[in-house]
Amino acid sequence: MRLVVKFNLVLLVIFALGFAAAAGVSASLLERSAREDVLQDARLIMESALASRAYTINQVAPLLKKLGDGEFLPQSVPAFAATEQFDALHAKLPDFSYKEATLNPTNLRDRAADWEVDIVNSFRQSPERTEIVGERETPLGRSLYLGRPIIIRDGACLGCHSTVEAAPKSMVQKYGPANGFGWRLNETIGAQLVSVPMTLPINRANRALYTFLAFLGGIFLSVFVALNVMLQLIVVRRLGTLSRLADEVSLGKIDGPDFPQVGRDEVSGLAQSFNRMKKSVAHAIKMLEE
User: Is there a single domain that holds both residue 148 and residue 50?
Assistant: First the structure.
């Protein structure tokens, strides 16, 4: 096997291993970065919903109580306000969603779906958990969800959700007596869930990965060509000349030209050694002829 072929095989193996390692590490880092960006968006939406709830509790609900005549107004409920506010965003960005998924909700639109029930039960089984982050496949593609528990901390909530008899009659008339009752203090009754699509960030990460790999491949191709040219000019061609001249000497052509010596590298050192050997052979032949 020729020297150039061996050199190129070794170079290709090294590149393949390096390319695979670079692709794996880069893909992992880019996907992690994309996921962190999506998670940041989810946390921003969650904080926005919490701010809406706080505004409703502290400012809207007291005013509605003063202006109202005792009738139940859903606009005074923090969960209703946060959901309504997000619906405006959801209308423009249907891939994004916010829901206060509840096991036994007053408003049936808040009833937890099957996958949401699993998250709520995780919070109920592990009261110390304050957040759950995960991914799931949706009809619109891969989505990241962020969940936080809904726990009854304020005893005032039980005024509407303990028993049907204790609840405002207008609320019972609006939503019926079958749902949203039997809640207890410090009970986890649901989870705030934000879902953010990952398709676009992952696609951006993949494009960045493909661009990087194409750039890396271009660099390797340039290095591959440059190394082959250098190997051909500096080593292979000079070794070929030395080999041809050595064959001539082996056939008794002692009076031929000396081996070329260019520079001070190893090939030049080899040429110098061949020249000394050639002179020694010529001297030995001369002595034998005499």
Answer: yes
